[in-house]
Amino acid sequence: MRLFEIAAFAVRGLTANKMRSGLTTLGILIGVASVILLIAVGNGASSAVQQSIAGLGTNILTISQQRAQQGSPVKPLTTADAAALVGADSPGIRHASPVVSAQATASFQGTSYAIGQFLGTDPRYFETTNSGVAQGNLFSDNDVQQARKVVVIGATVATQLFPGLDPVGKSVLVNNIPFTVVGVLTSKGSSGLQDADDMAVAPLTTTQNALTGYGSLNQIVVQAVSADALPRAQAEATTILNGRHRIGEGATADYRILSQDQLLTARTATTETFTVLLASVAAISLLVGGIGITNIMLVTVTERIREIGIRKAVGAPRSSILGQFLIEATLLSLFGGALGVAAGVIGSQFTIAGIQPVLVPSSVLLAFAVSALIGLFFGSYPASRAAKLRPIEALRHE
Amino acid sequence: MTPVIEVEGLRKVYGAGDTAVHALRGLDLTVQRGEYIAIMGASGSGKSTLLNILGCLDVPSAGTYRLDGIDTSDFAEQQLSLLRNRKIGFVFQSFNLVPRTTALANVELPLVYAGVRRAERKARALAALELVGLTDRSTHRPNELSGGQQQRVAIARALVTSPAIVLADEPTGNLDTDSSREVLGIFDRLNASGRTVVLITHEDDVAAHATRTVRVVDGRVAGVLV
């Protein structure tokens, strides 16, 4: 009975000044929603990166050239190196595809487009990287041997150069050299930071002939027989390459082998930093919302000291005054918090800046609890100060 | 019969040391049940301080105050709030209604803190409003009422708990002549029906309504006129 009446006073106090209550609620709403949403975006970004890396295949090793210490000679990575990696000495390795990459601008009927990644390799590369074809065909070993000027393009390149057209069979100029488009790769989507579809792949021989020349390979992409065989494949590759490049015991190699795992770890660390950054921005906005509530409660109490005096003069005990203002503050922050949770959850259903946010349930709980505590904590100081006033002091307050 | 109010050696000091202000310097006063007392005095004489202490809005520095036979000297805030609620009806010069709240809700306020049920509360509040002739204004908020009407709502609020005494601090101080007459008429009727009334005033014609006038000079009772 009594508590209900006090709660009714609190609700009346809030509704008597709708504008002020609304703005305070808005402050908490924004704080809570941004905490939930930004953490979801960070989480979404990191899971997108993980997925895209996992999509490339988990049993891949990437061998790339590395500048050795000064003075020691650097042997280029060659097609022969790639060929030597597959054989009886290396049962853990299934394929090894030599890869060169080129800066390439493609043009078709006056439209030109700088392709993000233009690679020259062999047909095994597609299998190794889980790349399928959406339209047309991949190129074949025969195309590599004959150095035919054919190219398989990614989805982004297809939409940029051939909007509304079927690219298969069209002739496209890559750095002014005509290539025939034989296929379009299945879309892999962007991983937040990089568009995996902004690429084109041509036979190794053709690319070296026409674009890069016969220097070192940029990479050798190795597929292990299975994910479990990855460490074995890495050891085998190291032994073979050390032999071919005459790297002695303890010397620094002139190449570097990276597994997909290591890549994943590095990328995950990056996105975790990103998430922490977003979360701290969000925490600051929640804090600002909390300061808003404190501010409003201080103003509310100060502005209503006379009213408190009146209530005390007609016999309100200290506890009911304290209760009324605490309930007011808590209602404000709970209401704002609940709306904020709703806004955050709804907002995280949409794709934001190319990232599909993934809700973290603990962040929802945390944000809501913090907002409620902020109301209780910062509301209690002004409320207890008001409740302690002697009635005559409160009544004299102007 | 025990007097409603029995005050002995009442002192009130504001501040301390050289700057201390002695508002009351050993004041004695006894008010019998059914009396209508007017307290007069120059400003600064201590009459408002006296009334605030009588209304348990303030506590004395020294001396005893027995309200309805109860010694309030060592009462804690919790007990004082109970006294304010049950025994005292206070009318202020500046009305002191809760803003943005209807006349009815304002009159109900003391009953809420007394824990009276909703239905009974409303009935009693409406009866009090009827007594001051404002039944038709019960849903109006203070800013929709004239000064005189606001003061009558405040009187209804003071009456609604059937207190032992009604205290009024210059109740007509902010009112025009007509409103003053109405308000004083209400006090007259209250007193005629047996209620004890103590009011502060500057004006002799207001004091003329009282059965006894107490003059306060320099924190002491100077003279009693019958």
UniProtKB/TrEMBL annotation, chain A:
<comment type="similarity">
    <text>Belongs to the ABC-4 integral membrane protein family.</text>
</comment>
<keyword id="KW-0472">Membrane</keyword>
<feature type="domain" description="MacB-like periplasmic core">
    <location>
        <begin position="21"/>
        <end position="239"/>
    </location>
</feature>
<keyword id="KW-0812">Transmembrane</keyword>
<feature type="transmembrane region" description="Helical">
    <location>
        <begin position="321"/>
        <end position="346"/>
    </location>
</feature>
<dbReference type="InterPro" id="IPR050250">
    <property type="entry name" value="Macrolide_Exporter_MacB"/>
</dbReference>
<feature type="transmembrane region" description="Helical">
    <location>
        <begin position="358"/>
        <end position="381"/>
    </location>
</feature>
<protein>
    <submittedName>
        <fullName>FtsX-like permease family protein</fullName>
    </submittedName>
</protein>
<feature type="transmembrane region" description="Helical">
    <location>
        <begin position="274"/>
        <end position="301"/>
    </location>
</feature>
<dbReference type="Pfam" id="PF12704">
    <property type="entry name" value="MacB_PCD"/>
</dbReference>
<dbReference type="InterPro" id="IPR025857">
    <property type="entry name" value="MacB_PCD"/>
</dbReference>
<feature type="domain" description="ABC3 transporter permease C-terminal">
    <location>
        <begin position="280"/>
        <end position="390"/>
    </location>
</feature>
<keyword id="KW-1133">Transmembrane helix</keyword>
<dbReference type="GO" id="GO:0022857">
    <property type="term" value="F:transmembrane transporter activity"/>
</dbReference>
<dbReference type="GO" id="GO:0005886">
    <property type="term" value="C:plasma membrane"/>
</dbReference>
<dbReference type="InterPro" id="IPR003838">
    <property type="entry name" value="ABC3_permease_C"/>
</dbReference>
<dbReference type="Pfam" id="PF02687">
    <property type="entry name" value="FtsX"/>
</dbReference>
<feature type="transmembrane region" description="Helical">
    <location>
        <begin position="21"/>
        <end position="42"/>
    </location>
</feature>
<keyword id="KW-1003">Cell membrane</keyword>
Automatic annotation (TrEMBL), chain B:
<keyword id="KW-0547">Nucleotide-binding</keyword>
<dbReference type="InterPro" id="IPR017871">
    <property type="entry name" value="ABC_transporter-like_CS"/>
</dbReference>
<dbReference type="Pfam" id="PF00005">
    <property type="entry name" value="ABC_tran"/>
</dbReference>
<dbReference type="InterPro" id="IPR017911">
    <property type="entry name" value="MacB-like_ATP-bd"/>
</dbReference>
<protein>
    <submittedName>
        <fullName>ABC transporter ATP-binding protein</fullName>
    </submittedName>
</protein>
<dbReference type="GO" id="GO:0098796">
    <property type="term" value="C:membrane protein complex"/>
</dbReference>
<dbReference type="GO" id="GO:0005886">
    <property type="term" value="C:plasma membrane"/>
</dbReference>
<dbReference type="InterPro" id="IPR027417">
    <property type="entry name" value="P-loop_NTPase"/>
</dbReference>
<feature type="domain" description="ABC transporter">
    <location>
        <begin position="5"/>
        <end position="226"/>
    </location>
</feature>
<dbReference type="GO" id="GO:0016887">
    <property type="term" value="F:ATP hydrolysis activity"/>
</dbReference>
<dbReference type="GO" id="GO:0022857">
    <property type="term" value="F:transmembrane transporter activity"/>
</dbReference>
<keyword id="KW-0067">ATP-binding</keyword>
<dbReference type="InterPro" id="IPR015854">
    <property type="entry name" value="ABC_transpr_LolD-like"/>
</dbReference>
<dbReference type="InterPro" id="IPR003593">
    <property type="entry name" value="AAA+_ATPase"/>
</dbReference>
<dbReference type="InterPro" id="IPR003439">
    <property type="entry name" value="ABC_transporter-like_ATP-bd"/>
</dbReference>
<keyword id="KW-0813">Transport</keyword>
<dbReference type="GO" id="GO:0005524">
    <property type="term" value="F:ATP binding"/>
</dbReference>
